Amino acid sequence: MKRIGNAVSVVIFHLSIVSAGRHWHEPRGAGYDIGMNNKTLLVASLTVVVSLSLWIPGAVANAAQTAPNIVVFLVDDMGVMDTSVPFLTDDKGKPKRYPLNDFYRTPNMQRLAAQGVRFNNFYAMSVCSPTRISIMTGQNAARHHATNWINPRSDNRGPHGPPTWNWQGLTSGDVTLPRLLRKVGYQTIHVGKGHFGPDDSEGCEPLNLGFDVNVGGASFGAPGSYYGEENYGQNTKRSHHAVPHLKKYHGSETFLTEAITLEAKKRVSESVQKRKPFYLYMSHYAVHAPFHSDPRFVDHYKNSGKSKNAQAFATLIEGMDKSLGDLLDHFDALGVSENTLVFFLGDNGSDAPLGHQHAVACAAPLRGKKGAHYEGGMRVPFIAAWAKESANNANQKQLVIPPGSLQTQVAAVQDLYPTIAKVTGASSPEGHAVDGVDLSKLLTAGPDDSRDEVFLMHYPHSPHRSDYFTSYRDGNWKVIYHYIPSKGSEGGHYQLYNLASDPFESTNLADQEPVVLREMVGKLKSGLETHQALYPVSPDDGKTPLVPVIP
Ligand SMILES: [Ca+2]
Fold first, then answer.
1. How many angstroms separate the alpha carbon of residue 115 from the centre of ligand 1?
2. Nearest CA among 361, 359, 377, 343 for reference residue 473
3. What would the pLDDT profile of 299-313 be if each residue is shown by its tens digit?
4. pLDDT value of position 66
5. What are the structural domains of the chain?
6. Given 163, 328, 330, 435, which is the most exposed site by the fewest CB atoms within 10 A?
7. Ligand 1 centre and the CA of 84: distance in Å?
C-alpha cells in the first residue's frame, strides 16, 4: 500500500512540473534551461529529492521518515489531582495515591502515563487565557500581559488591574506555535476551546492565529451546553456561548466531548491522507463549568456519596479521558501512532466543586483551586509520550521517552513552545522573546541541571478566588506577594512556604524566616522586571503602579 501511495505522489510531482513550467522539455539537470523560471527550478529540485527519497530501500527509507505528528491535548480546568493517575510522590519519590485518585476514573491517562513520562511539578497559570497564550507564544503571562481570563464582552481588568493589560489577547500579527509549524509543513488543526481574544477581535478566530482548521474555537471559555439535544447552547439562553461548527450533531445525543473528538479524528485522517504531518491542538471544553453530567458515565459515580455537581465533574473527566483513548486508537488505526508525540496537560488548577477555594479540598492534599494563589490553583497534570513505542522510529531514536517514568523537576506551560519547535525543526523568529525552556532533556526522565527550578505566576487582577497577587517558586521555597492585603492573604502582603517540609502550604513562615522572605521577594520582584510585567494600580489614584515592596 505504501509503495503504491509513493508511486502516486511521484506521478503527481511530475505532473506539477509540467504545469508549473511551460519551458520544461526534458529533465537534463537543474538550472541549465534558459527559459526555466525560478518556480520551476524549485519544483524540479524538490522532485529530484522527493523521488530519490521515495525509492530508496526500506531500511534507509525508515530513516527518512517524515516529521513527527504533534498533539497537545489540553483539558480545561483540570488539576493535578483530578485523575486516577497518581502524580504526587511519597518520601521515596514513588507515586502516591490519595483518595481523589480513587474517585476519578481515567484509564486512558493511565495508558498514556504507562507509555511515557509524567511530571509532578508542572505549572500552569491560574486561569484559562494566560495559559493558552503561553502555550501559543512560549512566553510567561507576565510578559504577554494577557494575565487574566479574557471576558469576551467587556474589559475585565478589575477595579485596580493594570489599565494596559492585554485584554485583546492574540492578534493576527503575533508569533504563534502553529504559525511556526505551518512554515515547516505541518497541517495545523484547532479543535475545541479557543479563548485567545474577545468577541470581534482577531484572536477570537483561531484561523487568524496560524491554524489551518478550526472546529469549535471562539472567544469564550465555557460552552453554552455540553448537550447535543441543546445544540451546544444555540437557541438557548446561553446562545452567546454556543459552540460553533457542530451543527450536524444538533438535536442528537452526542455529548460535546464526543462531538469534538469525532471531528478531531476526521481532521487528522484528512491530514494523513494528504501525507502532511499534523499539529493537533485538541482543546477540550471539558471539564469547565457548566457541570453537565455526561450520561455515558453517570453510573460510575452515583454511589460515591459526593454532591451532584462533583459527580457531574467526574463524568466530564471520564468523557475527556475516553476522548484521549479514542484518539490514541485512531492514530493506531491510521498507522501513525509510532510517529505521533502526545503532550497531555491541564490549563490551570482544579475547579472540582469540592470544598472551599483556599482549603485542602478539591485538589487534596494540595491546598486551593483554580484561580487561587496556592499550589492547587496552578499545579496541573502533564504527560508526554509517543502514542506507541517503537525502537525503530527515527524520531523516537532522537527523543527517547522511557515508559512509565516520572519527572520531578519544575516545568511549566510556556516550555511547550520551545520543546515542540525543537522536536519539529521549527524555528522561533529572532526578536520574539521566549521564556519557556526546551523540555527535551526532562522528557528522557533524566535530570537537567541547566534549568532553574523556578516558576513565576502573576495575577494583577480581581475578582477571582485570589486577587492581585504574584507568586514565585524557587526550589523548595515559594513566596506570595499580595499587592492589596485581604482576608485571603491573611491580612498581610507576604506568605512564605517551604514546599519540601510543608508541600500543602499549611504554615506561613513569612515572620519566622525574614532573611529567606527578603531574598525571595527580591527574586520575585526582579522576575517581574525581567518579564516587563504590568502592575496593579493604587486604589488611591487609580494610576500609580503598585510595585512589590521588599521587606
Ligand atoms: Ca481553564
1. 26
2. 377
3. 999 999 999 999 999
4. 87
5. 2-63 (no CATH), 69-443 (3.40.720.10), 468-530 (3.30.1120.10)
6. 163
7. 20
* CA–CA dist 201, 496 (Å, integer): 40
CA distances from 433 to 224, 531, 545 (A): 36, 9, 24
Distance in Å, CA 348 to ligand 1 centroid: 5
Could you tell me the pTM of the whole model?
0.89
For residue 433, give the 3-state DSSP assignment.
coil
Ligand 1 centroid distance, CA of 475 (Å):
26
Q: How far is CA 539 from CA 7, 161, 488, 529, in A?
A: 70, 10, 18, 22
> Which residues lie at CB < 5 A from ion ligand 1?
76-77, 128, 347-348
Instruction: Give per-residue pLDDT as tens, 87-96.
Output: 999 989 999 9
pLDDT value of position 402: 98
Alpha-carbon gap, residue 362 to 355, rounded angstroms: 6
Confidence bin at 377 (pLDDT 50/70/90): very high
Ligand 1 centroid to 313 CA: how many Å?
14
Ramachandran bin of 41, using left for φ above 0, alpha for ψ from -120 to 50, beta for the remaining angles: alpha
Evaluate whether 393 touches 66 at the Cβ level (below 8 Å): no
